[in-house]
Amino acid sequence: MTEPALDFVIAALEKIRESSDHSPRASRTMLRRLQLADFVAVSLPAAAELRTGGRQTSASPSGPRLQGASNKAQLLEPIRERVCACKKCAHLASSRTQTVFGVGNPDADLMFIGEAPGVDEDQQGEPFVGRAGQLLTKIIKAMNFARGDVYIANVLKCRPDTPSGTFGNRPPTPVEMQTCRPYLVEQIEIIQPKVLVALGAVAVEGLLGMRGTMRELRGRWHAYNGIPLMITYHPAYLLRNQAPSEKRKVWEDMLQVLERLEQPITERQRNYFL
Ligand code: URA
Ligand code: SF4
Questions:
Q1: Distance 215 CA to ligand 1 centre (A)
Q2: How far does the centroid of ligand 2 lie from the alpha carbon of residue 10, in Å?
Q3: Pocket of ligand 1 (CB under 6 A)
Q4: Which ligand 1 atom minimizes the distance to the CA of 202?
Q5: Which long-range contacts (CB under 8 A, 24 or more apart) does 177-180 make?
Q6: Where are the beta strands (DSSP E) in 52-109?
Q7: Tens digits of per-residue pLDDT, 113-150?
Q8: Which helix (H) or strand (E) holds 229?
C-alpha cells in the first residue's frame, strides 16, 4: 500500500470514530497487515534506488531483503506464538507434549484441514505425520504436489487427551473445537488459499459448525468465507476401510480439486487408484 493510500484509510477510520457511537474495530490480523504494508511502502523506494544504482542515502538494509520474504509467513508467526502459549483448554494444555500449529507453504493455493493432532503429531509438533498422515502425503504427491507446496493444519492445535495407560486417539469435542477454531480462522484469513479441503466430518463440524454424514457432504463443492471447500474422507477412514471404492472416491474428490486449481491432469492421474 502506498503512503497516500494509508493516510486515506487512517483518515476514513478517524471519520468513522468521530461520527459514530461505535469505535471502528479491526482484527489483530488486519492491524498487523496494515503495519507490514506500511513497512513495505517505506522500504520500496530504497529498494528501487539500490536497483538503479542511485544514491543510497535513504536505503534501509532491511528494505530489499523484506521484498523477497513472504508477508504471509511473517503474519503467521505471532499466531504461532499465541498458540504455543495457549492454555484456553486447561486439560489439553497440561497433557500435550507441544502444540501443533500447521506446516507447509504460507503462500499455498491449496490447504488441507484435519481434526486434531494424534500421538505422533503431539510428539513431532507437525500435523499429519503418523499413519494417516503418510497416506495424506501420498495423496498430495499423487496430485503432483510436494507436501511443502500445500498448507496443512488442524481445527485443534493440541492433542485430545486420553486416559493414561490407554492407546489410540480420541476425536476432539465440539467445545474444544469451538475454543480453538479462532486460530484456524486466522490461519485461513492470512493464507487465503484458492481451495480448502476438509478431511472428515469432524473437521467439517469444527470449520463450519455443521454436522452431517460424509455420504451427504463429500464429493461436492461447499464454501467457507467465499473460498471453495471440498469435503472428503479423512485418510484414517481409508486405513480402516480398505475397499478400493472408498479410495477411488477420495481420488475423484482430489481430481475435482485439481480442476478447480486449473492444474493439468494426466491420463495416468485420471485412472489412478490410491
Ligand atoms: N489426524 C488429523 O486429523 N490430524 C493430524 O494431524 C493427524 C491425524
Ligand atoms: Fe489453546 Fe487450542 Fe490447545 Fe485449546 S486446543 S489449549 S484453544 S491451542
A1: 21
A2: 34
A3: 114-118, 121, 127-128, 130, 132-133, 154
A4: 3
A5: 177/115, 177/202, 177/205, 177/206, 178/206, 178/209, 179/88, 179/89, 180/88, 180/89, 180/155, 180/156
A6: 103-104
A7: 999 999 999 999 999 999 999 999 999 999 999 999 99
A8: strand 227-232
